[in-house]
Write a structure and sequence with these properties.
This protein is an alpha+beta fold. It folds into three domains: 13-83, no CATH class; 90-173; 185-330, Reverse transcriptase/Diguanylate cyclase domain (Alpha-Beta Plaits), CATH 3.30.70. It contains eleven helices and five strands; from the N terminus they run αααααααβααββαβαβ.
Length: 332
C-alpha cells in the first residue's frame, strides 16, 4: 500500500506541473497573438519549460525590438532550435558531441550579447562624458562587462578544446575493435594510407582453428574470452609488426620494413607455438578448454593491392586448414 501511495503522490505532482505548463504556454501564445496550433504550442512549450535555452534566446532577440512573433519566426526558431527527429536513437558519443555543440552555441551567443550590451552602453553614455556623469562609474561598468565577456569567451575556448578531444577520441574508437582492442578493418585502411610498398613487404591472415566448436559448446562469453586471449598472444609474439582483427576469428598481420618471408614465418610460427602451449581452463568449472591453435597464410604485399594480397594469403590459409590446421604456410 505504501508503494501505491507514493506512486499516486508522484502522479499528482506530475499532473500539477503539467497543469502549470499548459496555461503558461497558452498565455504566451495569447500575448503574441498567435493561434494555438501544434507548431506554435511546441515553441511555447520550449519557452515555458526552458527559459534559458536557445529557443528562448531567439524569441527574446525578436521581442527586444518591440515586435511580436510571426508564424515565420516560429517556424524559423523551431527549425534551428527545436527537437530533431534524427536525435532519437542516436549513439552516446554522438549525443555527447551534440550536447557540447549546443553548449558552445549558448556560450557564443552569451558572449556576443555581452559585447553588444557593452557597445550600447558606450553609445548611451558618450554624450554624457562631457557633462556631469561620474566617469568612474562608467569605467567600472565598462570593466565589469568586459570581464564578463572575457570569462564567457574563456569558457567557450575550454568547451571547444573538450569538444575537439572528444571528436578525436570518437575517431580513434572508430578504428579499434571494442573486444580485443586491436585495430579493425577501418583502422587497417587508415594505417595503409601512410605506407609505401617497401614498408609493407608481407601480409598474413590468421584464423583460429575450430572456433565455431568453442562457441557452440561453451557459449559466446567463453568465445569472447578466447578471442581476447588469442589476440593478446599473437600481439605479444608479433612485437612491432601491425596486428588487427580482420573480422570474426580472423586476424591480419602487416609485417614492417624489410622482413623476409623466412623471418615472417619464424615470427608467426612462434606465435602459433606460444598459443598452443597455453593451458586454458574454463573459469566456472576449472575444466581444461583443450588445444587453442590457429592456421595462417603469409603472402607478399608490396606492390599488390590489399585485396590481392589478402586473396593470396587466404588461399594459403585454406590450404593450411586442409592440411590439418595448426600450421603456417608462406607464399613462394
Amino acid at each position: 500500500m505504501l508503494a501505491r501511495r507514493v506512486s499516486s503522490t508522484q502522479s499528482t505532482a506530475s499532473a500539477a506541473v503539467a497543469e502549470d505548463v499548459g496555461p503558461n504556454v497558452l498565455g504566451f501564445l495569447s500575448r503574441q497573438q498567435l493561434p494555438a496550433t501544434p507548431q506554435n504550442y511546441a515553441l511555447g512549450f520550449l519557452i515555458v519549460t526552458n527559459s534559458e535555452g536557445l529557443a528562448a534566446r531567439a524569441v527574446d532577440a525578436v521581442l527586444m525590438n518591440g515586435d511580436r512573433l510571426t508564424s515565420d519566426d516560429v517556424g524559423r526558431i523551431l527549425a534551428a532550435h527545436g527537437p530533431k527527429e534524427e536525435e532519437k536513437g542516436e549513439s552516446e558519443d554522438h549525443a555527447k558531441v551534440r550536447r557540447h555543440t549546443l553548449r558552445l552555441a549558448e556560450l557564443a551567443a552569451t558572449a556576443v550579447e555581452e559585447t553588444g550590451e557593452f557597445g550600447r552602453a558606450l553609445e548611451a553614455e558618450q554624450t554624457l562624458l562631457a557633462g556631469t556623469v561620474a566617469i568612474a562609474e562608467l569605467v567600472a561598468t565598462m570593466i565589469e562587462r568586459s570581464t564578463r565577456t572575457e570569462t564567457q569567451l574563456a569558457k567557450a575556448a575550454k568547451q571547444i578544446e573538450d569538444l575537439r578531444q572528444e571528436v578525436e577520441t570518437a575517431k580513434g574508437d572508430a578504428h579499434n575493435d571494442s573486444l580485443t582492442g586491436l585495430h579493425n578493418r577501418r583502422g587497417v585502411l587508415a594505417r595503409l594510407q601512410g605506407m609505401t610498398p617497401d614498408q609493407r613487404p608481407l601480409l598474413a591472415i590468421c584464423d583460429i582453428d575450430r572456433f565455431k566448436t568453442v562457441n557452440d559448446r561453451y557459449g559466446h562469453v567463453v568465445g569472447d574470452r578466447v578471442l581476447k586471449l588469442v589476440a593478446a598472444s599473437i600481439k605479444e609474439s608479433c612485437g612491432q609488426n601491425f596486428l588487427a582483427r580482420w573480422g570474426g576469428e580472423e586476424f591480419l598481420v602487416i609485417f614492417n620494413g624489410a622482413v623476409t618471408p623466412d623471418e615472417a614465418f619464424t615470427i608467426l610460427n612462434r606465435a602459433r607455438e606460444d598459443l598452443a602451449n597455453r593451458k586454458v581452463k574454463l573459469r566456472a568449472t576449472d575444466q581444461p578448454l583443450g588445444l587453442l591453435s590457429f592456421s595462417a597464410g603469409i603472402a607478399r604485399f608490396g606492390e599488390k593491392s590489399l585485396d590481392q594480397a589478402i586473396a593470396a594469403a587466404d588461399a594459403l590459409l585454406y590450404q593450411a586448414k586442409e592440411n590439418g590446421r595448426n600450421q603456417v604456410l608462406v607464399e613462394d
